[in-house]
Amino acid sequence: MTSADLFQLRSVILTSIERINESSVIARKDFLNTSEAQPGIHVDENDHARDEATLNTQLELHSRNLCLRNQLYAALARIANGSYGLCLRCEETIDLRRLQARPAALLCLHCQTRQENKVTATLHPSVGRRSPEVLNLSLLTA
Ligand SMILES: [Zn+2]
């Protein structure tokens, strides 16, 4: 990675943090403007349910943005200490195209894929192999 690449990625990261900070301010204003923040003004249950769903969606988005912002700050710290662009697991260089797509990436594509496959196998143990019920059913129909 050239110093120009690093400079460009740092700029992208700073812009992303700025956007998140701006959206965070807007989100706070939206929170304050929802009826949820002003209890007692609803008379219609449908309006209340809709507002509650909207508020939950906003909170989820806000939470994700704060998480991403933390990851971006961590990427800036890695740029400052010279470790940016190195996979945390295998310590190989992360492909520049991956960093351009995901500037806060911690893992190279190979290690990221392995991690995601482990998570999938943990959450969905039957993925990739048949459950006993499916095997029994296939024996009956064969
Ligand atoms: Zn790796």
Summarize the structure.
The protein has 142 residues and is mostly helical.
Overall description:
This protein is mostly helical. It has 2 domains: 3-107, Up-down Bundle (Four Helix Bundle (Hemerythrin (Met), subunit A)), CATH 1.20.120; 109-142, no CATH class. Helix content is 70%, strand content 0%. It contains 5 helices and no strands. Helix 1 packs antiparallel against helix 2. The longest helix is centred in the middle third of the chain and has 37 residues, at 45-81. The radius of gyration is 23 Å and the shape is flat. The N and C termini lie far apart (56 Å). The model is unreliable at 134-142 (pLDDT under 50).
What's the total number of strands?
Answer: 0
Give the class from helix and strand content and strand pairing. Answer: mainly alpha
Low-confidence stretches: 134-142
Shape: flat
Order of helices and strands: HHHHH
Mean pLDDT: 84
